Write a sequence for this structure.
C-alpha cells in the first residue's frame, strides 16, 4: 500500500516537472519561433522531468521521505528511462531532423536517420575504451556500461562549463577590464560604415546599368560554356564583362568590410552600455562581487592543481569535515546526526538548484545566439541531450558532497563505477578549461584596442 | 553625389523569412542560389521605370536595404541598426506565411524603423484601432510581402490569406504573397508586378514630387522642408 502512495507522489512530482519544462520551452526558448513539431517539445520536457526527478530522489534520500525499497525501485526505473531517452530517442530524433533539413535525402528520411544513429552508437561505444571506467565483469548492455559512458561525456561538459564560467564571471563583472569608448569613436565608426555602404551602392548601380544596356542590346551575358565557348572567348572577349567582374570583386570585398564594421560598431555600443551600467548602483555591486569571484576562481584552480599533482581525491565530504572541525577544534558539542542531515540537505539543495538554474540560463543564451528558423529543432534536441547528460553526471559527482550514510543508494543503483576516476577527470578538464579561457580572454582583450588604434 | 538623389527602401523582417532571396529576385530577376545569413546590412539596386508607358517615364535607381537580425536583439545591436534607418523613403515588410510570429513581429519592426519604440516589456496590444492610430500619421509608404507561399497546403490557404489581408489593412498597405524561389509570381503583367510597380511609383512620388505635382528641388534646399519625424545623420 505504501508503495502505491509513494509511486503516486513520485508520479505527481514528475508531472509537475514536465509542466515546468513545457512552459520553459514555450516561454523562453521558442519565444520567437513557431512550434511545428510537438515531438521536440515533448522530448525536451520529458528529459527535463526525469532529470529533476533524480535530484528529487537524492533529496528524499537525505530527508528520509518515502519507503526505502520504493525509493530504490524508483531510482532504477528513473535511471533506465533516462538512459533510454539519452542513448536511443534523442540521438535518433537529432539524426531525423538533420536529415529532413537536407533536401537531397528527403525521400528516405528514416533510413538515413537510422544510419546516423548507428554511427552515433559506434562512437559512443568506442568512447569507453581509453578510460579505466569499470571492471570487465559486466555484460554488454548493462546499465553500468551505458552510465559510465554518459558520465564521461557529462563530466567533461560540466568541467568545461565550470572552468569557463569561473573565469568569465569575474571578467564580465569587474569594470577594470572595460575598454574606454567615447561617443566620438562610435560616430566615427558609423560614418565609415555608411560611407562603405554608399560605395557599394554606387558600384552596384554601375553593374545594374551595364546589365540593362547589354540586355536591351540583345546580348545575353553568359559565361563562356562548353569547349567552343572557351576557344571563342580567347580571341573575342567582351570588354564590358571583364570590367563587370572586376567591379563585382570590389563589391564583394566592400561587403565583407561592411560586415566587419557593423560587428565592430555593435561591439562598441555594447561596451558603452556596460560602462553606463557600471556607473549605476547595481553595476557597482556586481563589480564588488567580481573581486570575490576572482578570488574564488583562483582558489579553485589552485585546489584542482593540488589534487592532480598530489594525486589526492577528497576522502571526506565538506559536511562531515565541517562538523569535525567545529567539534574537535572549536569544541562545540551538538547532535551530529541531526545537524548533518539538515546541513547536507541544505548544501545539496543549493548545489542542485544553482546548477539547474545555471544550466538553463546558459542553454537559453546559447540557443538565442546560434539558432535560426531552420535549425531550431536540431539545436533544441542537442540542448536536451546536453542537459540530460549534465544532470546524470551531476548525480555522480554530488555523491562526493554527501555524508557516507546517504551515498549508499547512489552506489547501490549505479553499481561498481570508479567514482574517483570521475573526480580526477573533472579536475583535469576544469584546469584545462580554466587556463585556456584565461588565455583566450587575454588574447581577445589585447586584440580589441589595437583594432581601434588602426582607425 | 549619390546621397543627393537616392531613393532608399528598407526591407525589414524576422530572421529567416526570405528577405535576401526576395531582394535578389527583385533586383536581378533571378532566384538566389545559396542564401546565407545576413550580417549587418546588404544593399542591392533595382532599376525602376517611373510611370512606365506614359510620356513622363523616367528611370530611377531604387536602393533596397536588407537589414538583418531579429526584433528581440540586444539594445546595442538595435542602436547599431538604427544607423541604416536614416532618410527612409519606403519600407517593405517581409513575413513568413508559415510562421505566425514573424507576422506579429512586423509591428515591432515598423515601430523600430519609425523611431517610435514600444515599451521594453514588449507587450503589444494588437487591437485594430490602437494600431491604426500609431500608423495613421505615417508618411512613408509600406508594402507587406508574405513569403514561402508554396509551403502552405491548399486547404489552409484561405485561412492564411485572410489573416494576412487583415495585417496589410492594419498597416494601410498593399500586400503581395509569393514564393521567392519561383520568378513567375513577379512575372511582367501579373497583379503582383503591378502592385510592386505602384508601390515604387508611390515611393518615388513622395520623395521627389510635392502633392501638387511640382518636383521637390535639390538637396541643399530640401532641408528647409524639414524631415518630419525622420532622424538625420550629419555628415560634417
Amino acid at each position: 500500500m505504501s508503495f502505491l502512495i509513494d509511486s503516486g507522489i513520485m508520479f505527481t512530482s514528475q508531472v509537475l516537472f514536465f509542466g515546468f519544462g513545457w512552459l520553459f520551452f514555450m516561454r523562453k526558448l521558442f519565444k520567437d519561433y513557431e512550434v511545428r513539431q510537438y515531438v521536440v517539445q515533448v522530448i525536451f520536457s520529458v528529459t527535463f522531468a526525469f532529470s529533476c526527478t533524480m535530484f528529487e530522489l537524492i533529496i528524499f534520500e537525505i530527508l528520509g521521505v518515502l519507503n526505502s525499497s520504493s525509493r530504490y525501485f524508483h531510482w532504477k526505473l528513473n535511471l533506465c528511462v533516462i538512459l533510454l531517452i539519452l542513448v536511443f530517442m534523442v540521438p535518433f530524433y537529432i539524426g531525423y531532423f538533420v536529415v529532413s533539413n537536407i533536401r537531397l535525402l528527403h525521400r528516405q528520411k528514416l533510413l538515413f536517420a537510422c544510419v546516423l544513429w548507428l554511427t552515433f552508437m559506434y562512437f559512443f561505444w568506442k568512447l569507453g575504451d581509453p578510460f579505466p571506467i569499470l571492471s570487465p565483469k559486466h555484460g554488454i548492455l548493462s546499465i553500468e556500461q551505458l552510465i559510465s559512458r554518459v558520465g564521461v561525456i557529462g563530466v567533461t561538459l560540466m568541467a568545461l562549463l565550470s572552468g569557463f564560467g569561473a573565469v568569465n564571471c569575474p571578467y564580465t563583472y569587474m569594470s577594470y577590464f572595460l575598454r574606454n569608448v567615447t561617443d566620438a569613436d562610435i560616430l566615427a565608426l558609423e560614418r565609415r560604415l555608411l560611407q562603405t555602404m554608399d560605395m557599394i551602392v554606387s558600384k552596384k548601380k554601375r553593374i545594374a546599368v551595364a546589365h540593362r544596356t547589354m540586355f536591351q542590346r540583345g546580348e545575353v551575358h553568359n559565361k563562356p560554356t562548353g569547349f567552343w565557348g572557351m576557344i571563342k572567348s580567347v580571341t573575342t572577349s567582351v570588354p564590358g564583362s571583364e570590367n563587370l567582374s572586376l567591379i563585382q570583386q570590389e563589391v564583394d570585398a566592400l561587403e565583407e568590410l561592411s560586415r566587419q564594421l557593423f560587428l565592430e560598431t555593435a561591439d562598441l555600443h555594447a561596451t558603452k552600455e556596460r560602462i553606463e551600467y557600471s556607473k549605476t548602483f547595481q553595476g557597482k555591486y556586481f563589480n564588488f562581487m567580481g573581486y570575490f569571484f576572482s578570488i574564488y576562481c583562483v582558489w579553485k584552480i589552485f585546489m584542482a592543481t593540488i589534487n592532480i599533482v598530489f594525486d589526492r581525491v577528497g576522502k571526506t565530504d565538506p559536511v562531515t569535515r565541517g562538523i569535525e572541525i567545529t567539534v574537535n577544534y572549536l569544541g562545540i558539542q551538538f547532535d551530529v546526526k541531526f545537524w548533518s542531515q539538515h546541513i547536507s540537505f541544505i548544501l545539496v539543495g543549493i548545489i542542485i538548484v544553482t546548477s539547474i538554474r545555471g544550466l538553463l540560463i546558459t542553454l537559453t543564451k546559447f540557443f538565442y545566439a546560434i539558432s535560426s528558423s531552420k535549425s531550431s529543432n536540431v539545436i533544441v534536441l542537442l540542448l536536451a541531450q546536453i542537459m540530460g547528460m549534465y544532470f546524470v553526471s551531476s548525480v555522480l559527482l554530488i555523491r562526493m558532497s554527501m555524508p557516507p550514510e546517504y551515498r549508499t543508494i547512489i552506489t547501490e543503483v549505479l553499481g561498481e563505477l570508479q567514482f574517483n576516476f570521475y573526480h580526477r577527470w573533472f579536475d583535469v578538464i576544469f584546469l584545462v578549461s580554466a587556463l585556456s579561457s584565461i588565455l583566450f580572454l587575454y588574447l581577445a582583450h589585447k586584440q580589441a584596442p589595437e583594432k581601434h588604434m588602426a582607425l | 553625389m549619390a546621397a543627393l538623389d537616392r531613393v532608399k527602401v528598407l526591407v525589414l523582417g524576422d530572421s529567416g523569412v526570405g528577405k535576401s532571396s526576395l531582394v535578389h529576385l527583385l533586383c536581378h530577376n533571378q532566384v538566389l542560389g545559396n542564401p546565407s545569413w545576413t550580417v549587418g546590412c546588404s544593399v542591392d539596386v533595382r532599376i525602376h521605370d517611373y510611370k512606365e508607358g506614359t510620356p513622363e517615364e523616367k528611370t530611377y535607381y531604387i536602393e533596397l536595404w536588407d537589414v538583418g537580425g531579429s526584433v528581440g536583439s540586444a539594445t546595442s545591436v538595435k542602436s547599431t541598426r538604427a544607423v541604416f534607418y536614416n532618410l527612409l523613403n519606403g519600407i517593405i515588410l517581409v513575413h513568413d506565411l508559415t510562421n505566425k510570429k514573424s507576422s506579429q513581429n512586423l509591428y515591432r519592426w515598423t515601430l523600430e524603423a519609425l523611431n517610435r519604440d514600444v515599451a521594453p516589456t514588449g507587450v503589444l496590444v494588437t487591437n485594430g484601432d490602437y494600431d491604426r492610430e500609431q500608423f495613421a500619421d505615417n508618411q512613408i509608404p509600406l508594402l507587406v510581402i508574405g513569403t514561402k507561399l508554396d509551403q502552405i497546403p491548399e486547404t489552409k490557404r484561405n485561412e492564411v490569406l485572410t489573416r494576412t489581408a487583415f495585417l496589410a489593412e492594419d498597416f494601410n498597405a498593399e500586400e503581395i504573397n509569393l514564393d521567392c524561389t519561383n520568378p513567375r509570381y513577379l512575372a511582367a503583367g501579373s497583379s503582383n508586378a503591378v502592385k510592386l510597380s505602384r508601390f515604387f511609383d508611390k515611393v518615388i512620388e513622395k520623395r521627389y514630387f510635392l502633392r501638387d505635382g511640382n518636383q521637390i528641388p535639390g538637396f541643399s534646399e530640401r532641408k528647409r522642408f524639414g524631415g518630419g519625424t525622420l532622424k538625420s545623420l550629419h555628415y560634417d
